[in-house]
Amino acid sequence: MELENEDKLAKEYFKGFITGLSVAIVFIVAFVIIMHFRINSIVNHLYGDKELTASAVSFDSKEFDDKLDKVKKCIATYFLDETDESLLVDGAFKGIMEALEDPYSVYYTADEYESVSKSTEGEYDGIGVAISEDDEGNIVVKDVYDDTPAEKAGILENDILLKVNDEDFSGKTSSDIVSYIKSIESKEFTVTLRRGEEEMEVSIYKETIEKPTVESEMLEDNIGYIKLSEFDGVSTNQFSAALNDLRDSGMNSLIIDLRNNPGGRLDVVCDLLDLFIAKDKLLVYTKDKNGEGEKHYAKYDATVTDIPICVLVNEKSASASEVFTGVMKDYEAATIIGKKTFGKGIVQQIVDLKDGSAIKLTVSKYYLPNDENIHGEGISPDIEVENDENTADADEQLEKAIEYIKNEN
Question: What is the CATH number of the domain that holds 179?
Answer without folding.
Answer: 2.30.42.10
